[in-house]
Specification:
The complex is a heterodimer.
Chain A: H1 4-12, E1 19-23, H2 27-31, E2 41-45, E3 49-53, E4 74-81, H3 84-92, E5 98-101, E6 105-107, E7 112-113, E8 116-117, E9 121-122, H4 128-134, E10 138-141, E11 153-154, E12 169-171, E13 175-180, E14 183-189, H5 195-200, E15 206-207
Parallel strand pairs in A: 1-2, 1-5, 5-10, 6-11, 10-12, 14-15
Antiparallel strand pairs in A: 2-3, 3-4, 6-7, 8-9, 12-13, 13-14
Chain B: H1 9-12, E1 21-24, H2 34-43, E2 48-51, H3 63-67, E3 71-76, H4 83-90, E4 95-98, H5 101-113, E5 117-120, E6 134-137, E7 140-146, E8 150-160, E9 166-167, H6 176-179, E10 183-193, E11 213-216
Parallel strand pairs in B: 1-2, 1-8, 2-3, 3-4, 8-10, 10-11
Antiparallel strand pairs in B: 5-7, 6-7, 8-9
The chains are: A alpha/beta, B alpha/beta.
């Protein structure tokens, strides 16, 4: 079974040369650490920076330079700053090549829920609804089950939706899956994880075709 | 040149009264109009509708207005950093309209640019689109979102001049430029008010025409919400 770092490592392999990538808060943020050095990629943060760099060294933090998770960051050479409308023009206008975000639930038709638990947690959707409504290439990074052990890959989402029919790929601690019109297609298993384990942890329709390879990290 | 400069924050906020709709720039605590918020607390205006991406934290930013129960309704995209906000919202004391961040930006920009509404794909098929007009363009569904109407917009810039020209710094830019000229009166506070003629016209982010009042702010705290650093030994 993978930990959060493992999920980030596997997703990093999806990042291709020349990509502009938007990383959500949580596991997605870790992906930046594992992209191969020979791959040129620019990270966009929706609060208004393209060319986001690593966290600053202690003592070099700048209150005017943060990411969408409100963490202090740095800007790489060639970076640019812009206003929020321009930022979402990049996203809505499909100029960003890959979006990686977390989720509470994903359904077998690609619906995603990640912003609200009615009556309990109301944090807001931030930029997630804009991102999922427009991005062509969305990867969800999440644990396969919630803290109670219940599947997060469902026939239908039970929580309020963030977007409909938009998720293309999911990387969890157990598996890599593709969302197809017939359901979740199992592509890879996490190291040491049996297909049956994945089946048991998946409430939505799981498509298993042939031998399922183990992930390479 | 039209002189937009006012002496201080008191003069800048003249005319603000209870039950008004206000826009406030900033993302988290980055680029918020600190001076204007402090003055709103001093003025004690109540029943405000505030349009801002976030609601500050418990003891800073818009959290200061929440503490005093000055906000009746909040329009924002993400409010997860504020316990008092969540408490007031779940108890029903505070009316809240959560909208997608890009929609928030574009509803400001539409008001600035003279568009009554815009179509966006964000939120289609979710509760955000409930009760709203939807329309198909080229096989994809879009939601009609209306331009904001606000009485005052409070923005924070890095540098500005008496003509109202503004330059922002880093990611403190965020919603600030989109809110300029999006309300009846735009009030800009700047860290440094420089003499007219010293800003390079090529480098100006917001032309003064979008700003009605400008002043040099004082005592900026510029609090960092999540100080995150790496050690010198780490490569990445």
């Amino acid at each position: 079974m993978l930990d959060k770092t493992g999920i980030a490592k596997r997703i990093a392999k999806e990042v291709k040369n020349g990509y502009y990538v938007n990383l959500g808060i949580g596991i997605p943020t870790l992906v930046a650490n594992f992209v191969r050095e020979d791959i040129d990629v620019e990270f966009q943060s929706e609060n208004g920076i393209l060319g986001m760099g690593p966290f600053p060294f202690d003592g070099e933090e700048d209150a005017d330079l943060i990411n969408a998770g409100k963490q202090t960051i740095t800007a790489l050479e060639g970076a640019s700053y812009f206003d929020s409308a321009t930022s979402f023009s990049m996203i809505r206008g499909k100029h960003v090549d890959l979006t990686i975000l977390g989720a509470m639930e994903v359904s077998e038709n690609g619906d995603i829920a990640n912003w609200k638990i009615p009556g309990y947690m109301v944090k807001g959707m931030g930029g997630a609804m804009d991102l999922v409504a427009s991005a062509e290439n969305i990867i969800v990074a999440m644990m396969h089950t919630n803290k109670k052990g219940e599947s997060k890959l469902l026939k239908r989402c039970s929580l309020p939706l963030t977007g409909v029919g938009c998720v293309k790929k999911i990387v969890t601690n157990l598996a890599v899956l593709e969302v197809t019109k017939d359901g979740f297609k199992l592509l890879e298993r996490a190291p040491g994880i049996a297909v049956e384990t994945i089946q048991q942890a998946t409430e939505g329709h799981l498509i298993i075709e042939g031998q399922i390879p183990e992930m390479e990290l | 040149m039209t002189n937009k400069q006012v002496a201080n924050v008191k003069e800048a906020l003249k005319g603000v009264s209870s039950e008004m709709t206000l826009m406030l720039g900033g993302f988290g605590l980055c680029g918020i109009p600190e001076n204007a918020i402090s003055e709103l607390v001093v003025m004690g205006v109540k029943d405000l509708t505030c349009i801002s991406n976030n609601a500050g934290v418990d003891d800073f930013g818009l959290g200061l207005l929440l503490q005093k129960h000055q906000i009746k309704k909040m329009v924002a995209s993400y409010v997860g950093e504020n316990d008092e906000f969540e408490r007031q919202m779940l108890s029903g004391e505070l009316e809240v309209e959560l909208i997608p961040q890009g929609t928030l930006a574009e509803r400001c920009r539409a008001a600035q640019a003279g568009f009554p509404a815009i179509y966006t794909p964000a939120g289609y098929g979710t509760e955000v689109a409930e009760g709203k007009e939807t329309r198909e363009f080229n096989g994809k569904m879009y939601v009609l979102e209306r331009a904001f109407k606000a009485d005052f917009s409070f923005v924070k810039a890095w540098k500005g001049d008496a003509a109202g020209n503004l330059i922002f710094k880093g990611t403190a830019r965020n919603f600030n430029p989109n809110m300029c000229g999006a309300a009846t009166i735009t009030v800009a506070e700047v860290e440094e008010l420089v003499p007219v003629g010293t800003l390079d016209p090529n480098q100006i982010h917001i032309p003064g025409i979008f700003v009605q009042r400008i002043f040099e702010g004082k005592n900026y705290e510029k609090r960092i919400e999540k100080r995150t650093v790496r050690q010198k030994t780490e490569l990445c």
